[in-house]
């Protein structure tokens, strides 16, 4: 009887211990996710052209791709807060953003203006549309070699001035081969635009997974396939062309960028 009672007593003591272990595990998990969420506070500076700017939209402050990207990130469970600055400028190329220009200075001012200095600083870049033009934009046509040099100069200076930041470079978007507004793009420009993918990937690879990362690579094909519904029809010198996302397209682009940025942040805390 004594042995049976002892075994019974041990079983009674073991059960609460198992429950306690589970409770501790749950609290540990909750603590982990809380800490993770607190770690993921972001300050994002978006660098780009008219696509980034979203100036053609009814309410760019809420509908532009940067606004949509930031809203997407804010909705993620492990993101605590997102503050952003839209530094998109219509017609601008990598030449316009080179270090020493007023535009680059404005980017740095935007990066320094965030009140919460503890947040992860991110530079989200999508440039190339206007670089690819045949005529009509600063420096155009920008060769793939010069595009690489310009992008590297921009990236190097950003990391020199903000060594703890992350630079995420997205591939530029498709546009129709008859695109011709105040600048001349056409098929030659589209071909050149596609040639920028290699310089972007080469630049990212040169940083060996540190500080500089490849962003979205899917939006080009998405907008090529869905340009009739996701890009704005615009009157040009060679007929109706498609270049800028409409309201729905801007929201979709925001998600493409958001997913790419989120993936980088999660993998490189």
Question: Can you put this structure into words, describing what you see?
Answer:
By secondary structure, the chain is of the alpha/beta class. The chain has 2 domains: 1-39; 42-267, Rossmann fold (3-Layer(aba) Sandwich). It is 51% helix and 16% strand. It contains 11 helices and 7 strands. The protein has helices spanning 2-39, 50-53, 60-63, 65-74, 102-112, 144-161, 186-195, 197-206, 219-225, 227-230, 247-267; strands spanning 41-48, 81-88, 120-126, 166-169, 212-214, 231-236, 239-245. The strands form 2 sheets. A 5-stranded parallel sheet has the order 2-1-3-4-5, sandwiched between helices. Helix 4 (65-74) crosses helix 11 (247-267). The radius of gyration is 24 Å and the shape is globular. Residues 2-13 and 26-38 have low confidence and may be disordered.
CATH H-level name of the largest domain... which superfamily? SGNH hydrolase
Mean pLDDT: 90
Task: Please outline the major beta sheet.
Answer: 5 strands, parallel
Number of domains: 2
Strand runs, count: 7
Distance between the termini: 59 Å
| Radius of gyration computed on alpha carbons | 24 Å
* Strand arrangement in the largest pleated sheet: 2-1-3-4-5
Summed up, the helix count is 11
How helical, in percent, are the residues? 40-55%
Please name the CATH topology of the largest domain: Rossmann fold
> How big a fraction of the residues is strand?
15-25%
What would the principal axes of the Cα set say about the shape? globular
The CATH architecture of the largest domain would be 3-Layer(aba) Sandwich
**CATH C-level class of the largest domain:** Alpha Beta
């Amino acid at each position: 009887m004594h042995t049976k009672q002892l075994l019974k007593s041990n079983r009674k003591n073991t059960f609460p211990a198992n429950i306690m272990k589970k409770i501790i595990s749950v609290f540990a998990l909750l603590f982990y996710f809380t800490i993770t969420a607190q770690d993921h506070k972001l300050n994002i500076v978006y660098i780009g052209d008219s696509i980034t700017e979203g100036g053609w939209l009814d309410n760019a402050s809420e509908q532009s791709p940067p606004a949509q990207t930031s809203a997407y990130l804010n909705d993620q469970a492990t993101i605590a807060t997102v503050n952003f600055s839209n530094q998109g400028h219509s017609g601008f190329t990598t030449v316009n953003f080179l270090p020493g220009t007023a535009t680059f200075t404005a980017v740095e001012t935007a990066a320094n203006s965030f009140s919460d200095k503890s947040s992860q600083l991110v530079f989200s870049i999508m440039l190339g549309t206007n670089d690819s033009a045949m005529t009509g934009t600063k420096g155009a046509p920008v060769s793939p070699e010069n595009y690489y040099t310009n992008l590297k100069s921009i990236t190097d200076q950003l990391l020199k001035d903000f060594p703890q930041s992350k630079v995420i470079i997205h591939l530029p978007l498709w546009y129709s081969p008859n695109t011709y507004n105040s600048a001349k793009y056409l098929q030659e420009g589209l071909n050149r635009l596609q040639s920028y993918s290699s310089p972007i990937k080469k630049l990212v690879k040169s940083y060996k997974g540190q500080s500089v990362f490849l962003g979205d690579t899917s939006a080009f094909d998405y907008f090529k396939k869905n340009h009739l519904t996701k890009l704005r029809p615009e009157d040009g010198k060679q007929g109706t062309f498609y270049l800028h996302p409409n309201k729905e397209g801007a929201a979709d682009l925001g998600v493409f960028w958001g997913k790419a940025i989120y993936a980088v942040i999660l993998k490189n805390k």
